[in-house]
Amino acid sequence: MTLIHFFLTHRMEIAESTGEHLWLVAISMLLAIAAGVPLGIAVTRKPWLSKPILGTANVAETIPSLALFGFLLPVPWLGARADRLAIAALAVYALLPIIRNTVAGIHGVDASVREAAVAMGMTGRQILFRVELPLSLPVLLAGIRIAAVWTIGIATIAAAVGAGGLGEFIFRGLAMVDNRVILAGAIPAALLALVADIGLGLLERQLRHARQ
Amino acid sequence: MEHGDDSPVIEFRDVQFRRGENVILKKLSLAVRAGETLVLLGRSGSGKTTALKLVNRLLEPDAGKVLVENRATTEWDPIRLRRRIGYVIQDTGLFPHFTIENNVGLIPELEKWPEARRTERVAEMLRIVGLEPSQFAKRYPHELSGGQKQRAGVARGLAGDPPILLMDEPFGALDPLTRAEIQKKFLAIQQKLRKTIIFVTHDIREALLFGARIALLEAGELAGVYTPQDFLRATEPIAAAYVATLQKPVSGYFRRSEA
């Protein structure tokens, strides 16, 4: 049976796993953005927060993914369901690039623009929402793009704790010593990462153009 | 108005400002009267920009007081204070993601002017600085030349109709011809609107052109306050050194071998 034939006969399964995979990635990315952007803003407002927040995110990043899934297993509510556990772990990985780029984006706003905003009597909120965040959007988006590509890759390991996704094929293929099965997980995962990278990259470029 | 004719709109009283060990301003005392343009003239590092930023409370004095309309800046609500003070800087600080119209109309918008009045005000301000609204209102700052951006910056500073205007070398980055053009335009605006203006520059010609009075700053200290006429006749070494740069004959600009 050729690879193409294998893909065709298992297309429903592959599609289902791809859907699961996307769902894991999407939810964890949303959580990471919801937490990461405010944390990044906090760092720019209170510089003393920089070390604890970025430090923690940095350390979390260095934990091998399989180990992180293991560590989270005994956590009461999280460990109860495999998908919860996987989403939490993936969100932790996505956090660092998002926080870091939020900080970089806001710090990158032209000093004279910020000074003018303050001097015109804009409030801190107005400066954040009308000047700093819109101007840092391309950099923030670059962080989201990095996080999305990582998360799509790491999500294949979620299958190890039974959370499903394209990793199912990879682990099964490893056990069966069948490359076709491994590729049935690896190829769609690689394509997803590629599409996310290119799509978000285009969006980022458009934003940069619109605002330069 | 809450102040009488003689009472200054802006007053520095024994103002000191330090940055770490460096004393940027030493015991500065200076008053700016209603409707006058006071030029702060000095070389880089003389403290003139610092003095300007003390007025709209971008900075606060370490000692002494800066009074705006008879109230210390530290006693003002900073937002209220800044909305009464137009601010025009060399880098313009135009928001790159706002159209010129939205840049100029920002303070009226923050002040919740009705839309019709806002639109009208923006068009009026653009015309006053010599930017045709139909041509420029919808453009973004990056689509403008340096001189046009600077005009838009002046229009933005004036849009909220603030009684006070602070200008920090607003025309310093322009080429000489564009600068002369925009200076002429601003001179007309100045005479028409009669705002209280503090104008920071290192350019003696610009100081003589705009200043009702010229306050000369040197290393954080006030070296004297002059009318333009007095300044030209001044015998004090610092003022005289500035005046001397004016009298350089054209041949002085050539190297000896070429002259």
Short description:
The complex is a heterodimer of chains A (212) and B (259). Chain A contains 10 helices and no strands.
What does this protein structure show overall?
The complex is a heterodimer of chains A (212) and B (259). With 212 residues, chain A is an all-alpha fold. Helices cover 83% and strands 0% of the residues of chain A. Chain A is built from 10 helices and no strands. Chain A has helices at residues 3-9, 11-45, 50-62, 65-72, 76-79, 82-107, 111-119, 124-154, 167-176, 179-211. Chain A is elongated, with a radius of gyration of 20 Å. The model of chain A has no long low-confidence stretch (mean pLDDT 92). With 259 residues, chain B is of the alpha/beta class. In chain B, 37% of the residues lie in helices and 24% in strands. Chain B contains 11 helices and 10 strands. In chain B, a hairpin with a 2-residue loop joins strand 4 (63-68) and strand 5. In chain B, helix 5 packs across helix 7 (146-159). The longest helix of chain B is centred in the C-terminal third of the chain and has 18 residues, at 176-193. The relative contact order of chain B is 0.16. Chains A and B meet through helix 7 and helix 8 of A and helix 2, strand 6 and helix 4 of B.
